[in-house]
Amino acid sequence: ALRGLAGQLLVGNLVVTQNTSLPWPSSYLTKTVLKVSFLLHDPSNFFKTASFLYNWDFGDGTQMVTEDAVVYYNYSIIGTFTVKLKVVAEWEQATQNAEKGIMQKTGDFSSSLKLQETLQGIQVLGPTLIQTFQKLTVTLNFLGSPPLTVCWRLKPECLPLEEGECHPVSVASTAYNLTHTFRDPGDYCFSIRAENVISKTHQYHRIQVWPSSIQPAVFAFPCATLITMMLAFIMYMTLRNAAHQKDMVENPEPPAGVRCCCQMCCGPFLLEAPSEYLEVVRENHGLLPPLYKSIKTYTV
């Protein structure tokens, strides 16, 4: 039999479907069966007697040859893959010499697929206790395909994020680092939301912030020590004042240091005008005995 190649290529479409309700085109789930179909464009039924051969290449190293225009395949890993298909159509056709020949037409088709995994959760790695003005770094590991957006906010309690409550950040990997510096002590909660084109998930991370240079384990000891020292000082001052008042009652004489101070400060005035000073003393202290007696003189 003679073989000939028709001048025109096959016309058709490669259609990929999956039993999911994803609104994004060309996005599919891993570990879920895909249906890949070839639809031939043949409105005049020209190829109704033709036989077809389909060579499939799924882009992950898997190839197969079938006689059926529909195959089912399951991708086990995430990523972007291109499904390639080569279609060969053959049929018998009479030639000018009244001989039958095998005619053939071919066509190449392809479709790009983006395989994703649903987000199973977010793993948060970071400290739960930190001081003020100390830089905090928290690592987020996404259990699933890289999300398109990550949104987080600090709250006093662990509550879900409302729409528009935070600003989304684009992420192109399965890990992301959050950094923050606390200025005020207290209890906080990181409320985190991540979503890709397939699903979304939430996670929370509690953290306690203490004042700078004060550790909670040793915070009570310095306070107790300071209070004890203050009480001891107050008792000492009280006893000292009581003893000083008792000495003043029992011994009204001024201490030697005071007498010395008076002599140093008031000495020049006493030396210059002793009589006037004594007169002032006698007026103020009437009970004080005179320091000298007057001497009478007689003339014979």
Automatic annotation (TrEMBL):
It comes from Ailuropoda melanoleuca (Giant panda). Signal peptide: none annotated. Gene3D superfamilies: Immunoglobulins (2.60.40.10). Residues 54-87 form the PKD domain. It is found in: Golgi apparatus membrane. This is Transmembrane protein 130. One of its GO terms (cellular component) is Golgi membrane. It comes from the Eukaryota. Keywords: Glycoprotein, Golgi apparatus, Membrane, Signal, Transmembrane, Transmembrane helix. Pfam families: PKAT_KLD, PKD. Its main location: Golgi. PROSITE patterns: PKD. It is a single-pass type I membrane protein. The chain crosses the membrane at residues 217-239.
